[in-house]
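stuck on this one:
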Amino acid sequence: MEKELKNITFTVIENGTQIPISTRHGSYPNLMYLLKEELQLESFGECGGVGRCATCVITTKGLTGAAAIKERNEPTTLEKLGHSDEATRLSCQIYITPDLDGAEITILEI
């Protein structure tokens, strides 16, 4: 019997408005694609998710597991922009997994 996938629910804050999002594990390649499609964000994620352009910068609260770890190009890209705190992330580097459940994601102005 195939295991049923549970909904992953989190809150996105864009321009001060809270938007509840509900999705499933692996429904998008990463959080950047989900945000871009669901919220119709222009000029968001211009490099296509390789962690270089920083047009998908967010702050996070409540990420768990692997989602809370910065890997690949992310730390270097964020440091070049002066973002050194752990809560600031590139949404292209966060996968759609249960580690997002209950989190709060704030989209930053570019």
